[in-house]
Amino acid sequence: MDGPNLDPRDQSPADFLERARQLSLSPRHARRWLAQVVGKGECDLAECSRRGILPRRFLEKTRELPRLRLEKQIVSKASKFQKLVFRTADERVVECVLIPLHRSGAVSICLSSQIGCVMRCRFCATGRMRVQRDLQTWEIVDQFVQARAIVRREGRHVTGAVFMGMGEPFLNYDRVLAAAQILSFPVEAAIGAEAITISTVGLVPQIEKFTSEGRRFRLSISLGAATDEKRKLLLPVASRTPVAEIMEAARRYAKSRHARVMLSYVSISGLNVSEDDARALGDLIRDTPVRLDLIDVDDPTGRYLAPAAAELNRFRDALRRYVGQPVVRRYSGGSDIGAACGALGSDQIP
Q1: Tag placement on the chain: N or C end, fewer CB within 10 Å?
Q2: What whole-number distance in Å separates Cα of residue 111 and Cα of residue 94?
Q3: Which residue ranges form the domains of the chain, and what is each CATH number?
Q4: Secondary structure of residue 171 in the 3-state scheme
Q5: Four-CA torsion 306, 165, 265, 346, nearest 10 degrees
Q6: Considering only CA atoms, which of 87, 102, 206, 205 is closest in space to residue 142?
Q7: In this predicted model, what pLDDT tens digit does every residue of 110-156 receive, in sequence order?
Q8: Cα(45)–Cα(60) distance, integer angstroms
Q9: 8 A C-beta contact, residue 73 and residue 81
């Protein structure tokens, strides 16, 4: 059906409600439509009209809502992680991950924002994919809606979302932020803004914009290393942006939020987990309030290996001395199904 776009998943809630007003849809009907599509995951226009959620006359004024096609649901044998593989209308592959949390029945959903990634991080499978395109806002939200439906059927509940899947979220800034606003809009099963985390490898202009806009979503910055020399070995973006500039932007964000900034640190044996690396992190972070998340590398090529327990323990002991702030080892499950951090898209590499 061809007509105006009134998809609650494809624009911020404020833009959607304004667009609905322009199309003479009452605020009551607009909110019920938004709640049905985003909160309940039901997109059938005719059914919503039959149930009085949408006026019948509106069927002729808007077009059917598209959906991603779920191709695979893969469950890890080693953990409770699950990977969902979607196919877009233009036959691209998008993956997201269901992350079980320690709380009973709680799940966080890891969302993709792009197909492929131009950042080309050396240890990341998505970075080795051919860069294809940004995801539309509705494609990001539909990952969440379909994933949440699976979680519900399993008797569990979604308590958060992380934009840490395929792509660099801040290179698709407007759509990612619109999607985050939709997920936290107060309808059934909405999640709090503080339970939504947006990750970046350190795009300073976008971090500054995010800070100035006063967003309530959490920010996570992937460091990889504390010095430019080592960072360039892992992240090509380091050649353009000194890590000190990234940390200054992080410092301003933490100050504006009166909260810790999350720093993600992919731990790689023999490369970035020595005492010198811990000392460099201390010098870089100084008095900035942070939470340092250590994540074992999961490189499908085997070029980069996760540190053994003894090596990692020595590094954590050194971090306590030089950084003196919370250090958390973030478990990245699902490596057996290509669902661990940095492993999405591994099946799509030519």
Answers
A1: C
A2: 9
A3: 13-60 (no CATH), 69-348 (3.20.20.70)
A4: helix
A5: 30
A6: 87
A7: 999 999 899 988 888 888 887 889 999 999 999 999 999 999 999 99
A8: 10
A9: no
Q: Looking up tokens 């731990």, which residue turns up? A: 267
Q: Is 270 left (phi over 0), alpha (psi -120 to 50) or beta?
A: left
Strands (E), the chain: 69-75, 82-87, 93-100, 106-110, 114-115, 133-134, 157-163, 196-200, 218-222, 261-267, 290-296, 327-329
- Phi/psi region, residue 344 (left: phi>0; alpha: psi -120 to 50; beta: rest), is beta
Length in residues, the chain? 350
- Give me the residues of the chain with pLDDT under 70, please: 1-5, 60-61, 348-350
Give the pLDDT of residue 5: 66
Give the count of alpha carbons within 13 A of 257, CB side only: 25
301 near 263, Cβ under 8 Å?
A: no
pLDDT score of 58: 76
The token pair at 301 is 């090529």
Note whether 132 and 92 are within 8 A (CB): yes
Distance between CA atoms of 38 and 24, rounded to whole angstroms? Answer: 21
Q: Give pLDDT, residue 1.
A: 37
**Ramachandran assignment for 72, one of left (phi > 0), alpha (psi -120 to 50 degrees), beta (any other):** beta
The per-residue DSSP string of 62-123 comes to S-PPP--EEEEEEE-SSSS-EEEEEE-TTS-EEEEEEEE-SSTTEEEEE---EES-TT--TT
* Order of strands across the sheet that contains 106-110: 69-75, 82-87, 93-100, 106-110, 157-163, 196-200, 218-222, 261-267, 290-296, 327-329
Alpha-carbon gap, residue 201 to 228, rounded angstroms? 13
Tokens matching residue 50: 């039959």
For residue 324, the tally of other CB atoms under 10 A from its CB is 11
**pTM value?**
0.94
| pLDDT tens by residue, 5-27 | 688 999 999 999 998 898 888 99
